[in-house]
Amino acid sequence: MSTDPTMPVDLPPSWKIWLKGIVIGDVSIGLLYGACALLQTIGVYDTLVIPSLFLVPLLGGLIASYFWRTLQPRIGATILNTFWMTFLALAGSTIAFHEGVICLLIVSPLFYLLVLTGACLGRIWFRTDTTRLRVTLLPCLAVAILAEPMTRIDTKGVVVDELVIHAPAAKVWREVTSFPEIPSAPKFWLFRMGLPYPVATTSAGDFVNADRKCIFSHDAIFTEKIVELVPQEKLTFDILESPPDPELIGHLTPHRGQFVLRSNADGTTTLIGSTWYTLHVRPVWYFDWWTQHIFRAVHLRVMEDVRRRAES
Amino acid sequence: MFYFVVRYLRWLAQVPGFPQVFDAFLLASTCILRRSRFVAMEALEVEALRLRDVRVKNHRFGGIEFIEGEGRELGHLHGHGLLDVFVPLETAQALIATGRVRSHHVFPNSRWISFQIESNADIPFALELLTMARTSVPSESDVKAQILTASRGELHSTTDRAVA
Q1: Contact indicator for A77, B31 with CB cutoff of 8 Å
Q2: pLDDT in tens, A37-92
Q3: Residue A3 domain flag
């Protein structure tokens, strides 16, 4: 092996370097998820933890760009290869973590954008200067990713929706406590793509502590218990168990649901539906927007069917 | 969208990582929606790096920054192809009067000017602007004005090295 610095260095073909960066970047992302799962198993984290989907792809992009640095990549090539990196990561998460298609659809724009951000930063950082300080940034960021869940404060979110029904509260109430199968096809675009949607609700009776089952499509059943019941006014239930559906599990915990009926002077009733939940995925600003978007569609599907039956 | 964010959501520039993520978004959308502009941006980077002693670094508010010598900024290129260049005040005024460049989106009436790259035909002029910036050494009053503006929470300061 020649050690003469004047001799040209044999570099592997560029596709191999691109592939190496993609694979190592994605494996690093997977390892961080694995490390988080391990820390959770040994009790370092108190609650269910998924590492920040802001920081993890950013680090993945930085790591990939470190391996791509010898190519002095252009922006276009970086954009294309971060796309493949994202595709491989999402395909890998489907296999390794059994993530659902809808979850991947939701996460993919953010994931891609952050991998690209990391890769663009690294493209310039590692291009001219690969000093130890810059490379040390990578393990520092990895440690920050593992430490970040310990700084989280679980906050409950709530989604509230209102609907005016042209029927008295007594008639609406009968349709709220339990209801048969909703006949209408789902309108919401994510329901059409396969996200479980509410189909029917059964209840053991109109009394506190009665068991309820909220049945979603794909045989997903939420087990619930009535905790507050004021006839013709309020129905509150705790959600005891969520179904093990890949689209629902692990990302958020719904805690409680509520229907409130408000009689209006003109003989109509305002139906107010609420759901309380805790998000386990970060960044909150991104995933909370999606959660509210989806819960709103769930509420409206149920409440519009209540309106249809009450007004008929 | 860039101008909307700069005008109404400027405070987001203070959120760590936001400018870089936003610039990556601009880059990706330019790559998909404005191919000729994107190709020209790539070509500009290559050509600018051929200028003697010019290097690139990450701009603190997203995009790539062209620097020379000890690190003095000549200009920076945002993800949607907007090239901001720091030229002498008289040159800035003369260039704006021609209508080929605009006053800067954050610092109007300053030595900063903005040039929107659209195609490869714009590259010679963009390089010319960067060359003009190379000959432009900021005066002490310019630097003081920039520091004052930066301390008021504005987006850009220009010549950290010049201060030193």
Answers
A1: no
A2: 888 888 777 776 778 889 999 999 999 999 999 999 999 999 999 999 999 999 99
A3: no
pLDDT for A48 equals 66
Nearest to A242 by CA among A208, A278, A268, A270: A278
- CB-nearest to A124 from B27, B31, B58 is B58
Range of the domain at A46: 14-151
> Is the complex ipTM more than 0.85?
no
**Residues belonging to chain B with any Cβ–Cβ distance to chain A shorter than 8 Å:** 17, 20-21, 23-25, 27-28, 31, 38-39, 41-42, 45-46, 55-58, 64
* B2-163 fold: Aspartate Aminotransferase, domain 1 (3.90.1150)
Chain B partners within 8 Å of A74 (Cβ) = 42, 45-46
Q: What pLDDT does A19 receive?
A: 96
Q: What is the pTM of this model?
A: 0.83
